[in-house]
Design goal:
- This protein is an alpha/beta fold and about 200 residues long.
- The chain has one domain: Thiamin diphosphate (ThDP)-binding fold, Pyr/PP domains (Rossmann fold), CATH 3.40.50.970.
- It has 8 helices and 8 strands.
- The strands form 2 sheets. The protein has a 6-stranded parallel sheet, with helices on both faces. The chain has a two-stranded antiparallel ribbon with strand order 5-6.
- α1 crosses α2.
- The longest helix is centred in the middle third of the chain and has 11 residues.
- The termini are far apart.
Length: about 200
């Protein structure tokens, strides 16, 4: 059962991670940085088409937003996107208040909420049936946080975030499908390509 889907508080369409990730990647044309979280978020980011400005988190849950925060602060002229699973975000809820306090306006965060730890066997997250992650984000100080009602609304919220006066968080309810691709698991190469993509390393 997709427990997020049964939460009556969220009157939003159940979408698909790869489809939404592809929609995001398709509209990038300014060397925007995109940080994918552990597992499915970075698998789908990879499958949507590798770019030098993509970073793929391996191994640790909950680090997409903290890493994206660092990039956004270090390069304020660059737009930074971060994609994280709901289960992973639960590991690092404190990052929301840190981001709200530092408030980089060039940061857009997407929470892919399927209500489960899909990649380890679809166990329901403890929050799935009782918590509203967007409400948690708002209460953490990220006032510009909302659920996307459907794919068009997702694209509209992404567009809106580009001119927002602070960080944006977008919650999307997704199905329980696994990621489409499989990122090449070479952490050193991932880091070096990303730093080169951000212009902070000499060409390889
Ligand atoms: C600290 C830690 N605990 C457990 C794991 C094992 N693990 C890897 S991915 C994952 C589930 C991720 O869930 P979510 O972020 O909701 O993404 P989904 O798999 O649903 O796409 C778990 C439990 C881990 N890598 N790190």
């Amino acid at each position: 059962m997709n427990t997020a889907a049964s939460n009556p508080a969220r009157n939003t369409k159940i979408m698909n991670r790869f489809d939404l990730t592809s929609r995001l990647v398709a509209r990038l044309n300014h060397q925007e940085a995109v940080i994918g979280g552990i597992g499915n978020t970075n698998f789908d980011l990879w499958a949507a088409g590798h770019r030098p400005q993509n970073f793929y988190m391996l191994g640790s849950m909950g680090l997409a937003f903290p890493i994206a925060l660092g990039v956004a602060l270090a390069q304020p002229e660059r737009r930074v996107f971060a994609l994280e699973g709901d289960g992973s975000l639960l590991m690092q809820l404190g990052s929301l208040t840190t981001i709200a306090t530092l408030a980089p306006k060039n940061l857009t965060m997407v929470v892919m909420d399927n209500g489960v730890y899909q990649i380890t066997g679809a166990q329901p997250t403890p929050a799935a049936a009782v918590a509203d992650i967007v409400a948690v984000a708002i209460a953490s100080g990220l006032t510009n946080s909302s659920w996307a009602a459907d794919e068009e609304d997702f694209e509209r919220l992404i567009e809106q975030s580009l001119t927002a006066s602070g960080p944006t968080l977008i919650g999307v309810r997704i199905d329980d499908k696994p990621g489409v691709g499989a990122t090449r698991r070479d952490p050193v190469q991932i880091r070096e390509h990303f730093m080169h993509g951000l212009g902070v390393r000499e060409p390889l």
